[in-house]
Amino acid sequence: MNRHWVDGVADAGIPADDRGLLYGDGVFRTGLVWDGQVHQFALQRQVLLTDAAALGLEVDVSGLTREMEHAAKQCGRGVLRITLSRLQTERGYGPRWPAPCRRIMSVAPLPARPAHWWGRGVHAGLLSMDSAGPASLSPHKHLNRLPQVLAQRALTPDSGLQEVLMTDPDGRVRCGSMSNLFLKKVDASGPAWITPADGSLMGVSRRSVASAMQRLGFSLEEQAVSMDDLQAAEEGFLANSLIGIWPLQRITQTGAQPESDTALTDWEAPGVQTRAVMAELDHPLVTDMLAAYGDST
Description:
It holds the Pfam family Aminotran_4. This protein folds into two domains: about 110 residues, Aminotransferase class 4, branched-chain amino acid transferase, N-terminal domain (D-amino Acid Aminotransferase, Chain A, domain 1, 2-Layer Sandwich); about 180 residues, D-amino Acid Aminotransferase, subunit A, domain 2 (D-amino Acid Aminotransferase, Chain A, domain 2). The chain is built from nine helices and 16 strands.
């Protein structure tokens, strides 16, 4: 079911001088396709256009809309990636600003993952990374993903890990290699949820989780997240547009054995409030996987 379209043309080639290919000069989004429709279509398109504007990319919105809808119908259920790359004929790093962009749609099947990752939680490892790039671009999903690519080298079959949490040289947790991190802490004023302020994408899942928490009456703060915050948390979860929410069960240093006694956190997952957010989010894959997990237990 892997297919792609370039500016609406099926199976078209991408030129060798494409600036997204050469320099990572573009933006992208990855979304869930369910029953022939892009989940949260309007929000996915809105965030993509915001990211494009940050790079000075001018988007044919009607063409983008038409091509997203067509790709989703062809896919049925699976993953849609939308890539926008800067169009210009001049070579070299210097960009034309603003500039039109090339639209690339690609669809693929959903990754095969066990339902218990949603029902019992996942194991994440901490990995120290150097700066992932200019702070001004960190909220936007640009094409430069090498830190995430390198981080996922830790997800070997024998690691027992399902995600890697990337930390900066000062030990602050920035984000997962493919997800946003949310932690529930307790302080003098009561329970509150926190999420890293720096390094995380201001994307669809982060906004959707924030809206769900607001409806539930849960407070959510963006702040620097330290190791102390991690160890003091009562529950946590990871979120992205494709998986919805994975409850966090254990967090260890990368390289530690999955069942070792060096875990920084060891929670019963999903926690009470995590379960409430999962239900409120109304994500079709979460609903499907929790039903499958319930049928297997």
